[in-house]
Write a structure and sequence with these properties.
The chain is α+β, with helices and mostly antiparallel strands. The chain has helices spanning 115-121, 126-137, 243-278, 282-295, 301-308, 325-338; strands at residues 33-42, 52-57, 63-67, 73-79, 83-88, 91-98, 104-111, 142-144, 159-167, 178-183, 189-193, 199-205, 208-213, 221-225, 232-239, 315-319, 346-350. The strands form 3 sheets. It has a 9-stranded mixed β-sheet with strand order 3-2-5-6-14-13-10-11-8. The protein has a 6-stranded mixed β-sheet with strand order 4-1-7-15-9-12. It has a two-stranded parallel ribbon with strand order 16-17. Residues 1-30 have low confidence and may be disordered.
Length: 364
């Protein structure tokens, strides 16, 4: 199939299939994917197998469906940093989860086997809902929890008892982690710190959707706690990198960047001195350096074609597959030498799937 592309403003359209291959660059590699794992546990023991679990993106409603396995688990490969609604066939509460920027996020939902039946049986009437809302108005904007355990409130039937467990990425208890549960509708929050076992106990007013927030990750997950009669007991478990580990990595990255800036500055200073000795400008020095790279390249077909033809309004379509690296080097050098003159240059980048078999490559 042939495709013709026409631009009224262009006299000539250049289509070249090339690669720009940058090591350690995630932004131009294959589309980012991360993993969401959810386990369905019976609060009275065991797990829920063969239950339909659906993830629906908040952005456009794209859905991902799986049935839980014999361990009550599902695993989804989904786009990174995306917020999803979570629906489970035998679970009535609304729940949300956000995929990480990379890697894995795990969530455990623990509930009774009779949850659906009880939800219908224990629905509140309007008068009862009004009483719950009145209870919420009496609370401070933020309730601070001491010793990782909130004391049971007097009118416990208006609250859901939530026991939240945090584990680090190694599966060990994440202790000393500060987190906030924030109600979206009423703007009432609960703030506390996990104990040595990574646990924290909340009593939160029913009839609201609550977000789990950390210092460096807002709206990490959220769930709705409906208006229901009687007492509600909910156990939740999350895996999380942890604020201390995040800040440690940020500090290491900051130091790495400072060292790299120091190294680059030393290189620039040395290069500037060499240019002064030769009596040339810094720009001319870089131009000569790049030309030396051209002559050191055995294959110069791309550079020769681009230098020979003076096309206007170029659109360069670049193949990002690793095997095209020799041509990417030429394109990179040519662009660095000519970017000031190329006022109307455009690029389109694509990758046909590094190290993938043809039958595994999916268009788009």
């Amino acid at each position: 199939m042939k495709t013709q592309i026409k631009f009224g403003f262009s006299k000539v359209l250049l289509l070249i299939s090339l690669l720009i291959f940058f090591l350690n660059s995630e932004s131009i590699s294959q589309e980012c994917e991360s993993t969401i794992e959810i386990q369905l546990k019976n609060i009275d023991g065991g797990v829920f197998a063969n239950q339909k679990v659906t993830l629906s993106t908040k952005l456009d409603g794209t859905t991902y469906n799986q049935n839980s396995d014999v361990l009550g688990k599902v695993s989804f490969n989904v786009p990174c940093n995306t917020l999803f609604d979570v629906f489970v066939s035998n679970y009535t509460d609304k729940n949300e989860i956000q995929s990480p920027r990379s890697g894995l996020v795990q969530q455990t939902l623990s509930y009774e086997a009779t949850m659906v039946a009880k939800a219908k049986e224990f629905e509140m009437n309007l008068a009862e809902i009004s009483k719950v809302d009145q209870t919420a108005t009496l609370l401070p904007d933020t309730t601070f929890i001491k010793d990782s355990k909130m004391l049971p409130p007097k009118n416990a039937e208006h609250f859901a008892r939530v026991n939240l467990t945090l584990k680090d990425i190694q599966g060990l208890p994440l202790s000393g982690e500060v987190l906030v549960l924030s109600g979206i509708k009423r703007n009432k929050s609960y703030k506390g710190t996990t104990d040595i076992r990574g646990n924290i106990l909340f009593y939160i007013v029913k009839g609201d959707t609550y977000q789990v927030n950390f210092k460096h990750n807002k709206n990490y997950s959220s769930a709705e706690y409906a208006y229901t009669k009687g007492t509600s007991k909910i156990d939740m478990s999350f895996s999380y990198l942890g604020t201390k580990e995040i800040e440690k990595r940020k500090k290491e990255e900051k130091l790495r960047i400072l060292e790299e800036e120091k190294r680059l500055k030393a290189e620039r200073d040395m290069f500037t001195k060499e240019c002064k000795k030769k009596g040339i400008s810094i720009e001319e020095g870089y131009r000569r350096l790049l030309r030396d790279k051209i002559y050191g390249t055995t294959d110069t077909v791309v550079i020769k074609v681009l230098n020979r033809n003076k096309w206007l309004n170029k659109l360069i379509v670049c193949d990002l597959t690793g095997s095209m690296q020799p041509y990417a080097v030429q394109l990179s050098i040519w662009y660095q030498l000519n970017y000031k003159k190329e006022q109307n240059l455009q690029f389109v980048f694509f990758n046909d799937g590094d190290e993938k078999k043809d039958n595994e490559k999916i268009i788009g």
